[in-house]
Amino acid sequence: MNVKEKIIEKILAFCALVTVFTTIGIILILAIEAVGFFSQVSIVEFLTSTKWTPLFTQKSYGILPLLSGTFLTTVIAISVALPVGLTIAIYLNEYASKRFRQILKPLLEILAVVPTVVYGFFALMIVTPFLKTFIPELSGFNALSPGIVMGIMIIPFVSSLSEDALSSVPNSLRQASFGMGSTKFQTAFRVMVPAASSGIVVSAILAVSRAIGETMIVAIAAGQQPRFGFDPTVPIETITAYIVQVSMGDVPHGSLAYKTIFAAGITLFIFTFILNNISYWIKERYQEEYE
Amino acid sequence: MEVKSEASGPKATRVKTEPRVNSENQTYKLRAKNIDVFYGDFQAIHDISLDIIDNSITAFIGPSGCGKSTFLRLFNRMNDYIDGFSMNGQILLEGQDIYDPSVNVEELRKKIGMVFQKPNPFPKSIFENVAYGLRIQGIKDKDFIEQRVVESLKQATLFEEVKDDLDKQALALSGGQQQRLCMARTLAVKPSVLLMDEPTSALDPISTAKIEELITELKKKYTIAIVTHNMQQAGRISDNTVFLYMGKLVEYGDTQKIFTNPEKDRTQNYITGRFG
């Protein structure tokens, strides 16, 4: 009996440690390969050059075009997801009947479980042609369409986390606001949203982090042309899409071109890591106000 | 004889010694007529009629669950948000039925302010808390708002303590200060009636004493209805006392009489602490 308990405990601990070691392993490999890359390419060039052409004969290793592409699609995505997601959260929390909320919430979550390759296909084949009717100069591959579709995909992130934040605001504040003669709208926007602001900011940051790391949609619908600039109508390439491109191509193992994906990967990792930490910090720092 | 605030209607004075129940005297601020309240199938209030006199303090006492908070919240329609709430009867404010479909609930709540059991300031600055009621009315005049904020904080006897840090977070104040801030916030929109739902039950004795002093002072300008668990408090501050039991009105009358010589045994037993 005692031995059996001990074995079970060891197995459970092992399972927990596997995830930790995997993370450490990934970071380690990223770091080692990136160090290999930076021994051949100066970090100054990496951070300042506006050309990213490691696969061409005229080689240039500036990450900025990939960053601008990532930034562009992410900004478009969040400017779709934040207003829509927040509106949904406010509606669910302040207006919708309990019954309707119970029906709508699981339906919304479906958006998050649609495979991203479906979204990518959807962006390329449906959204882009649709947008072309308004913006004739839009390229077949562009940042706008996958940005919008990615925004739709992350709406449930924003809406469900913001709704959690809103519903954790004590009812006494809502009562105080109504008691002062506020309308529902005033109560929602002048009391509830400000009181839940830390949670709403966290939801937005996590959504941004998700959008930065999103791969399939942009790989399919944004094109594969690293381009430094902020024009949403032309083909661009994001960090993630570049990594896909190189991983699938026939780049020789161990070559400098091969190592670029680790440099790009660690850049991506640093961004999402920082964002996740900021959101964690905001949560810890501001969210115990009402306890 | 006290002078009423200009906001509370045409009548200027009140007489404390007149009969209080079922009189047609016009100094009644609020009148409840044959009130039944239901939450789903449960009847919380059974056929209560009573009148609340202008510029007086009316205390509602009774054991937990007797319906005193429910009854208080009828006056500013705060029960409207509770699932399954329904009612019969009429509540008249200065002669007008406040449950009439034509009544604008937001306007009603500007006339009938409420202070809650637990201090519930908004997570904003002290200044913005008091200014809130003016801002939602669309008032933009900075000087007017500032003047009203200062005036209300003074009225709530909080100004001296906070005058140097009006931009400080309201949640940084002590519980007693927060509750006085909530009073200032309510006073800033110049209501004529103040409803208080156990306003001192979450506070220490010193803060409680300050709030009680404040309530007694406010009586000069406002009609006050207060729910309290604390018998001594009801005895100290109120002019009239309503004793409710199991959703029914047991006794309503002059506080001094209720506390020294109640008509009903049940009232006697409750007040002397034999039950409840």
Write the H/E string of chain B, N to C.
EEEHEEHEHHHHEHEHEEHH
Which outline of chain B best applies?
Answer: globular
**Uncertain parts of chain A:** none
CATH class of the domain at 19-118 and 191-271 in chain B: Alpha Beta
How much of the sequence lies in strands of chain A comes to under 5%
Q: Give the mean pLDDT of chain B.
A: 87
Number of strands of chain B: 10
Helix tally of chain B equals 10
Please report the total strand number of chain A as a whole number.
0
Q: Any guess at the CATH architecture of the largest domain in chain A?
A: Orthogonal Bundle
Largest sheet strand order of chain B: 6-7-8-3-9-10
Order of H and E elements of chain A: HHHHHHHHHHHH
Largest β sheet strand count, sense and barrel closure of chain A: none
Give the count of structural domains of chain A: 2
End-to-end span of chain B in angstroms?
36 Å
CATH class of the largest domain in chain A: Mainly Alpha
Number of helices of chain A: 12
Keywords (chain B): ATP-binding, Nucleotide-binding, Phosphate transport, Transport
InterPro entries (chain B): AAA+_ATPase, ABC_transporter-like_ATP-bd, ABC_transporter-like_CS, P-loop_NTPase, PstB-like
Organism (chain B): Fodinibius salsisoli
Region (Disordered) (chain B): 1-23
Can you walk me through this structure?
The complex is a heterodimer of chains A (291) and B (276). Chain A has 291 residues and is mainly α. Chain A has two domains: 2-39; 64-286, Orthogonal Bundle (MetI-like fold), CATH 1.10.3720.10. Chain A is built from twelve helices and no strands. In chain A, helix 6 (144-167) runs antiparallel to helix 9. Chain A is globular and about 70 Å long. The relative contact order of chain A is 0.15. The model of chain A has no long low-confidence stretch (mean pLDDT 91). Chain B has ten helices and ten strands. The longest helix of chain B has 14 residues, at 142-155. Chain B starts with 27 loop residues before the first strand and ends in a 5-residue tail after the last helix. Chain A: The chain crosses the membrane at residues 12-43, 63-89, 110-131, 143-166, 187-208, 256-275. Chain A: This is Phosphate transport system permease protein.
